[in-house]
Design goal:
The protein is an alpha/beta fold. The chain has two helices and three strands. The chain has a domain of about 60 residues. α1 links the parallel β1 and β2. The termini are far apart.
Length: about 90
């Protein structure tokens, strides 16, 4: 058995992000929904979706339902969702 010591000094990554979009209203927007399908909240999530649709009357609702509760949503699918929506609701560790 050997002990490996790693050098903790590294280059600091600079992340460039644009300012967040501020919406005047949530009504009549393109809404994204990201849900991990955890069995403990399926009923709640279904009720939430119905309420969002009824109250906000979105132009569109894009849904991304993860197939694996614990893994992150696939980056390509997330990128598509971001491009196609004005804002998103993300549920339980999605």
């Amino acid at each position: 058995m050997s002990i490996v010591i790693y050098n903790p000094v590294c280059k600091v990554e600079t992340v460039h992000a644009r300012a967040a979009n501020h919406l005047d209203s949530l009504s009549n927007k393109r809404i994204g929904l990201v849900f991990n399908q955890h069995s403990s909240v399926v009923e709640f999530w279904n009720a939430l979706e119905r309420e969002v649709e009824k109250k906000l009357q979105p132009k569109t609702m894009q849904r991304l339902y993860k197939t694996n509760t614990w893994a992150p949503a696939p980056s390509g699918e997330m990128a598509d969702l971001i491009r196609q929506t004005d804002f998103a609701l993300v549920g339980v560790g999605a």
